[in-house]
Amino acid sequence: MKIDKNFVLREIAGEYIIIPTGRTALEFNGLITVNEVGMELWKMLQKDVTFDDLLNGILEEYDVDENAAREDIQEFLDRLVKGGILTEDEKSEK
Question: Has this prediction a pTM greater than 0.85?
Fold first, then answer.
């Protein structure tokens, strides 16, 4: 899975916001605000990664329960997929 290149993450007034660019800005209605963990996931998603890559990255960076991290990551990914921001391929694992 990987972030669509037509979306960028920007820090605006202390908040992290996913913003569409180019033609995508005409089609995508709204913005998505993310927290610090969402920002870390966004950084990791700049490369083609698997769910396990994301989980391991968060577990290394934050003191969080693995099951809670797993659920939160899946919820974040689902939001990105629903918004057309995240693309998945056959190499990705959930």
Answer: no
